[in-house]
Amino acid sequence: MSKVAIITDTTSYIPKDIREAENIHAVALEVVFGNVSYKEELELSTGEFYKKIRESENLPTTSQPPFGDFLELFEKLSETHDEAVVITLSSAISGTYQTAASAANMVENIDVHVFDSEISCHAQAYYVIEAAEMAKANDSAETIMTHLEAMRDTGMSAYFMVDDLNHLHRGGRLTGAQLFVGSLLRMKPILAFRDKRIIPAEKIRTKKKAINRIKELFDGIAGTGKPTKAFVIHANRPDDAKALADEIQVKYSNVDVEITYFGAVIGTHVGEGTIGIGWYQP
Ligand code: MYR
Q1: ipTM above 0.90 for this complex
Q2: What is the pLDDT of residues 89-98, one digit of tens each?
Q3: Would you say the CB of residue 151 lies under 6 angstroms from ligand 1?
Q4: Once rounded to an integer, what is the mean pLDDT over residues 138-159?
Q5: Which of 8, 114, 197, 211 is the most exposed, having the fewest neighbouring CB atoms within 10 Å of its CB?
Q6: Does ligand 1 lie within 6 Å of residue 157's CB atom?
Q7: Angle subtended at Cα 110 by Cα 105 and Cα 114, rounded to the nearest 5 degrees
Q8: Residue 230 near ligand 1, beta carbon < 6 Å
Q9: Sorted alphabetically, which Pfam families does this protein's record hold (predicted)?
Q10: What's the domain range around 274?
Q11: Which of 130, 153, 176 is the endpoint of a domain?
Q12: Do 126 and 194 share a domain, yes or no?
């Protein structure tokens, strides 16, 4: 029987206690302030990050995990496992997928499969948790990959609204905005993933209207009555996130809603104040 290790990158923001309980390994992306880089979640917590950006003169940048971190982990896991499944954030917004795939090709004694979640954050975590449950049930890496692909085909959605679009624009992670970027930067567009990339899905003028529109999009899904997994995600807006999650939970008994966060690396690109809702109907 094949023993499968489950690996993710830190942008799935799965808390350490859950990672440990589910045997999930995490490889960290890095956030860079000046010439000091920190492995997010391991060397810089999300709380410390939001404090640091307020105190720092220059805005941080980010980078994918070093190639050697994947290689070292794969080699270590090859002593105890036959196969591994790595689940990364979207390959169109970070080189993490490509780096993991290159390291997978270099390693011997373990068969490493790399899965592109085509999204990030808690939506990525849904794949990781599912894969960890399957590995626990002794499914093979191939069976897990097939299941993850089916989940991706079913549709994983996330809509979010940023307080200041300049962060995403500066980091070059906003697709399709070039033609109307001047006017867009003054708006509160609703952002979403399409074909692995972040696009302004709808142009909206005010924060209030934007959040109401996100709720409306979610209502269209939750209102079907089908069992739905949902998350409210925020960049240092815990009270607003809680209020939104409570509202969803009171309204829909078919929805299992969690509150989650944008950590340092994704927080660098979306900026403090970002809030959104993501969902998946298994
Ligand atoms: C890197 O330096 O490789 C990391 C780049 C990360 C780009 C993040 C762009 C924003 C993603 C928003 C995710 C929202 C999910 C609900």
Answers
A1: yes
A2: 999 999 999 9
A3: no
A4: 96
A5: 197
A6: no
A7: 55
A8: no
A9: DegV (PF02645)
A10: 156-280
A11: 153
A12: no
Nearest to 46 by CA among 231, 198, 278, 272: 272
Q: What is the mean pLDDT of residues 245-249?
A: 98
pLDDT in tens, 116-138: 999 999 999 999 999 999 999 99
Return the pLDDT at 139: 97
What backbone phi and psi angles, to 5 degrees, belong to 264? -60, -50
CA of residue 65 to ligand 1 center, whole Å: 13
172: left (phi over 0), alpha (psi -120 to 50) or beta: left
What is the identity of the amino acid at 200? P
Do 145 and 161 sit in the same domain of this protein?
Answer: no
Indicate the number of domains in the chain: 2
Return the best residue to mutate from 173, 268, 275 for the ligand 1 pocket (most ligand atoms within 8 A of CB): 173
**Which atom, in ligand 1's list, is nearest to the CA of 64?**
3
Mean pLDDT of the chain: 94
109 and 140 share one domain? yes
pLDDT for position 1: 57
Going from the Cα of 93 to the center of ligand 1, the distance in angstroms, rounded, reads: 6
Measured from the CB, is residue 53 less than 6 Å from ligand 1? no
Atom 2 of ligand 1, nearest CA residue: 63
Q: Which residue has the tokens 């399709």?
A: 176
pLDDT digits (tens, 9 = 90+) for 64-76: 999 999 999 999 9
The CATH number for 18's domain is 3.40.50.10170
Q: Encode burial over 241-252: b for 16+ CB neighbours within 10 A, e otherwise.
A: beebbeebeeeb
The predicted structure's pLDDT at residue 203: 85
17-47: per-residue pLDDT in tens?
Answer: 999 999 999 999 999 999 999 999 999 999 9
| Ligand 1 and 233: CB distance under 6 A | yes
